[in-house]
């Protein structure tokens, strides 16, 4: 039987998350200390994930100022803070968010910092300028902050950026030939096979391509744009596909609203080693609504079975095969 983690580790995870929430106070030294604490016991990744989920609950409170200097020693919690931190009792129930782990692999480079998340990992990273990145599953990006510019290069995957205002240092995300510049805003950038998708949750973003910087598209809060080397395509937000639903992954969820099962399967496959395969083309075109945990493809498949009368084959631990049920096949 595995030895349970000591209570001090749970306390430490809560302190780390609280300190990370103060982006202005978070430093590269803090980040290094956090990585050392996580590396000392792989199980601490799960604790940190739980603490992050609890911190996002309504009524989050201010963080204790102390950050652990010796990562292997228990953290002394002042008596006056015990009531303020009683909310940590909810952590155990938040594991169902379904994210496999919270800590991204991070490499410090001569010209900046590179962040890489594995399949199923989601990471919230404060930057030295006061901005915060939330990095989605299977993502690789590089950050370079200088005295005159703030640049992010997204090689693959997706990230959401809460950008601190700094008129002297533009915040630009590059993905291939596509550029997106924040104008006091919060927005996400996702690299897709056919281009780059930009979703704006607050403020304004300008987007363009490296081939023609003179042609710029302004995307407002609640809107999205798909950009590639040949075209800028602007999508207005709508009741059926609001931006916030597309960014439900920030809370460990997949929000489907009139989504085809083909698209839903692709979303689940972004986060899970066990892949969903829609074997029947007719079934793949079916539309579906629902809110699901990103780490629960089995639950999604069982819901389809109950609501759409499809057949589920879970005999292979690597895939979940979905096809038309026997009854429907006979009627076809």
Q: Care to describe what's here?
A:
The chain has 3 domains: 99 residues, no CATH class; 147 residues, Jelly Rolls (Sandwich); 80 residues, 3-Layer(bab) Sandwich (Phage tail protein beta-alpha-beta fold), CATH 3.55.50.30. It is 22% helix and 35% strand. The protein contains 8 helices and 18 strands. The strands form 3 sheets. Strands 1, 2, 3, 4, 5, 6, 7, 8, 9, 10, 11, 12 and 13 form a 13-stranded mixed beta sheet that branches. A hairpin with a 5-residue loop joins β17 and β18.
CATH topology of the largest domain: Jelly Rolls
Strand content: 35-45%
Count of individual beta strands: 18
Determine the fraction of residues in helical runs and give it as a percent range. Answer: 10-25%
| Poorly predicted sequence stretches spanning 5 or more consecutive residues | 57-110
Order of helices and strands, N to C? HHHEEEEEEEEEEEEEHEHEHEHEEH
Number of domains: 3
Kindly name the structural category.
Answer: alpha+beta
Tell me what the CATH architecture of the largest domain is: Sandwich
Main beta sheet, described? 13 strands, mixed
Number of helices: 8
Identify the overall geometry: flat
Terminal CA distance: 52 Å
Instruction: Return the average pLDDT rounded to an integer.
Output: 77
Instruction: Indicate the radius of gyration in whole angstroms.
Output: 21 Å
CATH class of the largest domain: Mainly Beta
Transmembrane segments: 90-109
Domain FecR protein: 114-206
Keywords: Membrane, Transmembrane, Transmembrane helix
Protein name: FecR family protein
